[in-house]
Amino acid sequence: MTNEQVTALMKAAQAVWKKYRDDPPGFHDLDALDRMLEEFNAPLKGLPERTTQIMLFFISEIYERSKARENAK
Q: What global pTM score does this model have?
């Protein structure tokens, strides 16, 4: 990957992260979760498979936050 590709991937990941970090989709809101996953997957098109690890980290963290929020209700 070029430096430009890495930079673009990180910026895209950060943009989606910022959108969902403080207000993750409800744990049982499958439509919202699907939309979020589509947003995380979009920047990965055409990039090496190993780049998914970056997005999986963010998705996992948002999932845990969503689960914690739902359990706190």
A: 0.74
